[in-house]
Here is the input.
Amino acid sequence: MVQQVTNGIKISVISNFQTTSYRNYKLYYVFSYQVTIENQSNETVQLLERHWKIFDSLNNIEIVEGSGVIGKKPILKPGQIHTYASNCFLTSPIGAMSGFYNMVNFATTKIFKVYIPTFQLIVPNISN
Here is the structure.
C-alpha cells in the first residue's frame, strides 16, 4: 500500500494483478486498484475530477481525465472516508499509475489538487 497526504486529504492505494485478457487479438494484463480517500482536515470537501498518468513499460504514458470517480463526486466531511475500486489494462506486465484529484473546499470555495502517490502494477514473480 502507498499513501500520501495533501492539504489534509489522505490517499491510500492498494493494487493487485488480476488476470490476462485478450481484446481484438491482443494480450492485456489486468490490474485492479483500490483507492481510499480520507478527509483528515477540518473542512468539508468534494472530489470533482480525476487525472491519471498510466505508465506501461511497452507504451507511452497514457493520460486519463474525467469527472469524479466511477460515476461519483463524493462529498467528505471531516473524518469521513470514501473507498472505490477500479481496473487498468496494460500491454506489458510492468507499469505504474499516479495522478491527482481536483477537489473543492466548501468553506472557501477554492479548488485544490490532492496528489495520488505512484503505485506499481507488476505481475507477481516477473522480477525473479
About this structure: The first strand starts at residue 2 and ends at 6. Strands lie at 2-6, 9-23, 26-39, 45-56, 62-67, 75-76, 81-90, 94-105, 111-122. The chain has a mean pLDDT of 95. Residues 2-122 form a domain with the Immunoglobulin-like fold (CATH 2.60.40.1470).
